[in-house]
Specification:
GO molecular function, one term: peroxidase activity
Largest sheet: 3 strands, antiparallel
Number of domains: 2
Strand content: 25-35%
Helix content: 25-40%
Organism: Bradyrhizobium jicamae
InterPro entries: KH_dom-like_a/b (IPR015946), OsmC/Ohr_fam (IPR003718), OsmC/Ohrsf (IPR036102), OsmC_Ohr_Peroxiredoxin (IPR052707), Peroxiredoxin_OsmC (IPR019904)
GO biological process, one term: response to oxidative stress
Protein name: Peroxiredoxin
Number of strands: 5
CATH class of the largest domain: Alpha Beta
CATH superfamily of the largest domain: K homology (KH) domain
Distance between the termini: 30 Å
CATH topology of the largest domain: GMP Synthetase, Chain A, domain 3
Length: about 140
């Protein structure tokens, strides 16, 4: 079992506020995010883009494992995860993630590739997260 972390800071209101995200590894260190980067296409990151990157990475790694079990090795795989955020009622919801994969796998036929990619889509831990129990420990400081 492994546990790692990401963190976020926020100051101000929803539209005029500013946030910063960081990861335990240091890959992101106080990287800016906010309303404008989430809803107006301005510079900075947002939760959906981070979810997309995580899902694309997880799916691609899972497929690499599954390919190896089938005695296949990818020469190259590139995956994009398009995460859709839509207004629902009084709030917002992530309504879909669309994965697009381009792969070069010597010795693989299309039927086998489609089957293995489908297994990776269903089995990667981030795919499973979208239907997982979420808990919260909230404290006022």
């Amino acid at each position: 079992m492994t546990t790692t972390s990401g963190s976020a800071k926020w100051q101000g209101g929803i539209k005029d506020g500013k946030g910063a995200i960081s990861t335990k590894s240091g890959a992101l260190n106080d990287y800016p995010y906010g309303f404008a980067s989430r809803f107006e296409g301005k510079a900075g990151s947002n939760p959906e883009e981070l979810i997309g990157a995580a899902h694309a990475a997880c799916f691609t790694m899972a497929l690499s494992l599954i390919l190896g079990e089938a005695k296949l090795t990818a020469e190259q795989m590139e995956t994009r995860a398009d995460v859709t955020l839509e207004k629902q009622g009084d709030g917002f919801a992530i309504t879909s993630v669309h994965l697009t994969l381009n792969a070069k796998i010597p010795g693989a036929d299309d039927a086998t590739f489609q089957e293995l990619a489908g297994k990776a889509k269903a089995g990667c831990p981030v795919s499973k997260l979208f239907n997982t129990k979420i808990t919260l420990d909230a404290k006022l400081v």
